[in-house]
Every structure is written in C-alpha cells, then in structure tokens.
Write a structure and sequence with these properties.
Elements: H1 8-18, H2 27-60, E1 63-70, H3 76-86, H4 110-115, E2 122-128, E3 131-137, H5 145-153, E4 157-163, H6 170-181, E5 186-191, H7 200-210, E6 215-217, E7 219-222, E8 230-233, E9 238-243, E10 249-253, H8 260-275, H9 279-286, H10 293-305, E11 310-314, H11 323-333, E12 342-346, E13 352-356, E14 365-373, E15 378-386, E16 388-390, E17 394-397, E18 403-405, E19 409-413, E20 416-420, E21 422-424, E22 428-432, E23 440-444
Parallel strand pairs: 1-3, 1-4, 4-5, 5-11, 6-11
Antiparallel strand pairs: 2-3, 7-8, 8-9, 9-10, 12-13, 14-15, 14-23, 15-22, 16-21, 17-18, 17-23, 19-20, 19-22
Helix pairs in contact: 5-6, 8-9
InterPro entries: EFTu-like_2 (IPR004161), G_TR_CS (IPR031157), P-loop_NTPase (IPR027417), Small_GTP-bd (IPR005225), T_Tr_GTP-bd_dom (IPR000795), Transl_B-barrel_sf (IPR009000)
GO molecular function: GTP binding; GTPase activity; translation elongation factor activity
Pfam families: GTP_EFTU, GTP_EFTU_D2
C-alpha cells in the first residue's frame, strides 16, 4: 500500500527518467539532463587534468640531468664511456686517444682523439633502471673552462671526478667553485683505485680541506692498486664484485671478515657526518637507536639535494669497477628537475624573480645555453625549464622579440642526432637549423 501511495509528480519523474523515449522529455527535464552532462564532463576534465599532472610528476621524478667534471686526465671521458656501455647506449668500449682507431664516443672531434683531451662539452642520454639520465661530458683543461660554465648552468646535479693518485688539483677547485656558483648538488667519484700510489682516504681529506666539502665515503674499496677487487657499500652493508670481461656481472656478497672493523668504523663516520646536517638522522643517532639502510639512504638524499653534503663513491673506470654503483648513486641521491629551484626574470616588472614550476603544463620557458656548428649546420642546445616544445612550434626570442619556427627538434648522442617530435620540461634537447644567440631565453610564440 505504501508503494501505491506515490504522488503523481514522483511517478511522472520516474517514468521520464526510465522511459526509452526520455530524449523527448519536456524542456525542463532536458535542461536537467544537460546540466548533469555538463557537470559530469567538468568532473571528467578535472580528473583527467589530475591524472595528467600525476603522470607528468611521475615521469619527471625519473629524469636526471647531470654533468661530469674534473681536472684534466682524471678519467671523465673514460667514465662516461663505461656509463654508456653499461646502460646499453653503446655496444663496444673504446679508449681515449683512439688507440684502436676509433676513440671514445664522446670525443667526436679528430683533434680530441689525437690529443686525448676533451675540448668541447658533448651531450648524450641513456637509460638506467627505467630512469632517463641526460649527461654532459665537460672538458677538464683550463683553456676550455667556459664549456664547463655553460653546462653547469643548466644541470640539476653533477659528478666531480677525483684521481686517487693526483688528488684534488687546480681544475678540481675551479669546477667545484663553478658548481657552488650555480648551486649544483654533486657526488664525488674517486677514480683510478687500480693505479700504484692510490690513496682514497688522502683524497677524501683533501676534498674536505681544499674544496671545503662536508663529505664522507659511502663505499670502502676491497684492496687497492693491483689488488683492487671490489667495493663495500656502507649504506647497504654489502660487498660488490665486478666480474666479466667488461665488469658487467655484479656479484653481491657479505662484507669480508677481515674488513668488518674498518667497515663498521667508516659507516659510523658516515652516519656521524650526515647527522651533523640532517635533523631526522641526528635524532636517531643521539638516541642511540639502530639506523637502517633506508633511514641512512633517505638522509643522504635529503642533505645532498640541499647541498649540505657530498657523498663520495670510489672505483676504477678503466678497470670497469664501481661505475654501476655510481649510476645507482646518481638515481638515489641527485635531484630530479622538480626538486631544483629555478627562476626567470620578468623584464616587464623591473626584472623581478619569477619562480618556475618546472611543470610541462606551464608556458614554455627554455634557455639556449650552447651553440655548435655541426656537420650539417647550426645546432642550438636548449634546457627546457617549463612547458613543452614541439617540432613546428613558433617560439619567441626574448632578447630580440623575434618569432622563429622550430624546423627540427633533436636529441644528441655526441655528434649524432635523433629526431623527436616534442620535449617537455626537464629535458635537454637541441634545435637544428635555427641560429639563436647564446644564452637566449625562449618562450612560446603568440
């Protein structure tokens, strides 16, 4: 009886919304349907925008823009060659000076291969554990230090390579000063542990005194010189050995019994040094609570990104030992593009600083930081700070106010080009066929 007592209006609405011919409903009902559809469409747009933002954020978190810098003959290009090999970017390792008639991939100039030095910075990219790593290999000779300056200006992180025999040298001090100027978080890599006279602890002390690094080792070498066998990771407390013709097979083992005391001492030193600049770890350390590998790793990342600490890795690029661990350190401790603060100057408002979100959804903001005369014409390297650039887009040169079309967008692998259709914030790409002045700020054309 209760069901039969429905009002006429209730029954009419029920009939209208459930009838197969409800598209012929009265205007008021059709309007109601229209508002429902608009509301649903608006909610769907908001959901898509949130999903897209989350997707962009996730993709940006898996990008690293790094440079490799050092004093001349510290092993930068040799290190980069191994990085490209282990990431699958190249399939053969060739040495500096072109002893085999080929030469290192990043030394594309004939003069570089003849003299065995890097003259101009070269860009490349690779993939390691689903992360995209954009790399700029910079010169070490003082005569080409401007190339280092241009590269460090647009990077989010860097690796300082130090020779375990030569230690901190004059150009090491110069490149470290440049990194401080542009506020670049960095790792240190003590190279050439296989050479006679190698002493990583002496080099670490020099980095603290000469470079004023607040640093500590995150690895301990297993043997030195001819007896250099592998590394002990102080964070994970595991030993790693690099087997195979090119050191591609990594064998994980327990810490050697004869090194347990040294490893415990160096790990305590690492925790103590990091605790001085990280409050969370300091609380655990002062409370004498056990510190897990994840606690220590998170703390090292926080203080490295904040430029309060420099983790020190070790190895021998020439002997193919320790390079993969360094790559893991780049992913674990160096920042992604969204973790670095960048700003532009508003020319219409007395050059007031405008913070850049680093989001691909914002307006295009890019910096032309390097010009190069390639084999086929003019190349302009761009660091994209915000927005998306596509092939065929019109972009504005802020310095001149001119609008220019992007004829060809490429990603560089030394002197080789790979055509792409678009690139988003956080990427380093090149525009081919357009002659921009150096250090030109670019934005999307109207």
């Amino acid at each position: 009886m209760a069901r039969a007592s429905k009002t006429t209006a209730t029954r009419l609405l029920y009939t209208l919304f459930n009838s197969p011919n409800h598209r012929h409903a009265p205007p008021c009902t059709a309007l109601l349907h229209r508002h429902c559809r608009l509301f649903s469409a608006g909610a769907a747009v908001v959901t898509r925008q949130k999903d897209k933002a989350a997707l962009w954020e996730e993709s940006m978190a898996k990008v690293r823009n790094i440079g490799i810098s050092a004093h001349i003959d510290s092993g930068k290009t040799t290190l980069t060659e191994r990085v490209l090999y282990y990431t699958g970017r190249i399939h053969e390792i060739h040495e500096v000076r072109g002893r085999d008639g080929v030469g290192a991939k990043m030394d594309s100039m004939d003069l570089e291969r003849e003299k065995g030095i890097t003259i101009q910075s070269a860009a490349t990219y690779c993939t390691w554990k689903d992360y995209q790593v954009n790399i700029i290999d910079t010169p070490g000779h003082v005569d080409f230090t401007i190339e280092v300056e241009r590269a460090l200006r647009v990077l989010d992180g860097a690796v300082v390579v130090l020779c375990s025999v030569g230690g901190v040298q004059s150009q090491s001090i110069t490149v470290d000063r440049q990194m401080r100027r542009y506020e670049v978080p960095r790792l240190a890599f003590i190279n050439k542990l296989d050479r006679m006279g190698a002493d990583p602890w002496k080099v670490l002390n020099q980095a603290r005194s000469k470079l004023r690094h607040h640093s500590a080792a995150v690895q301990v070498p297993i043997g030195l010189e001819d007896d250099f066998q592998g590394l002990v990771d102080l964070v994970k407390q595991k030993a790693y050995y690099f087997h195979g013709p090119m050191g591609e097979n990594i064998v994980t083992d327990e810490v050697p019994t004869n090194m347990e005391t040294l490893v415990a001492e160096k790990r305590h030193e690492l925790i103590e040094v990091v605790s001085e600049v990280d409050d969370k770890l300091a609380e655990l350390f002062l409370a004498d609570e056990p510190i897990s590998s994840s606690d220590l790793e998170d703390a090292i990342r926080r203080v490295t990104v904040a430029q309060k600490f420099v983790p020190v890795f070790m190895g021998s690029a020439f002997k193919n030992k320790g390079v993969q661990s360094l790559l893991d350190g780049v992913l674990d401790y160096l920042p992604c593009p969204t973790e670095v603060t960048n700003y532009a100057l508003d020319q219409n408002n007395d050059e007031e600083k405008v913070m850049l979100s680093g989001s691909p959804t914002g307006p295009l903001v890019a910096l032309a930081f390097k010009l190069e005369e390639g084999r086929f014409g003019q190349l302009t390297y761009l660091r994209i700070y915000e927005g998306v650039i596509k092939k065929g887009d019109f972009i504005h040169n802020i310095n001149t106010g001119k609008k220019v079309k992007v004829p060809r967008l490429v990603r560089m692998h030394s002197n080789e080009m790979e055509d792409i259709q678009e690139a988003h914030a956080g990427q380093i790409v090149a525009v081919f066929g357009v002659d921009f002045p150096q250090e030109t700020l670019l934005r999307m054309g109207q």
